[in-house]
Design goal:
alpha+beta; four-stranded antiparallel beta sheet; 26% helix
Length: 117
């Protein structure tokens, strides 16, 4: 049964980067610390001015999610396409005076990555 399930998932693995037969969250696996696929993947070259129209969540909602994941004071925030995924990226200074970068999926508000600098 596992083999036939794997064969059915194989075409999706090519598209979404997931070949695990036990996966129920394709597109949310980490590869080298990065999320392989986010919920919004703009096709082709997109101008920065077009990015806000593609986002499903607001900057403020993304900031709330980032601060929930890494409490502190935000010093930088931007909406960008990184590795093909539309995301909000925030730099937050914590109580330890260290900067943490938090990436939030611009489609569903989920934390994609937290990285201490």
């Amino acid at each position: 049964m596992k083999t036939s399930r794997l064969l059915l998932l194989l075409p999706f693995a090519v598209l979404f980067g997931c070949a695990s037969p036990d996966c129920d969250k394709c597109g949310e696996h980490k590869e080298g610390g990065k999320t392989s696929v986010g919920s919004i993947r703009p096709a082709g070259k997109v101008k920065e001015t077009e990015l806000p129209a593609l986002a499903k969540i607001s900057y403020n909602d993304a900031l709330k999610a980032a601060l929930a994941a890494a409490p502190g004071s935000p010093i930088k925030g931007e909406l960008e396409v990184e590795e093909g995924t539309l995301m909000y990226s925030f730099e937050i200074v914590g109580a330890d005076h260290k900067v943490t970068e938090v990436e939030i999926d611009a489609g569903n508000g989920k934390v994609l990555e937290i990285e201490k600098e």
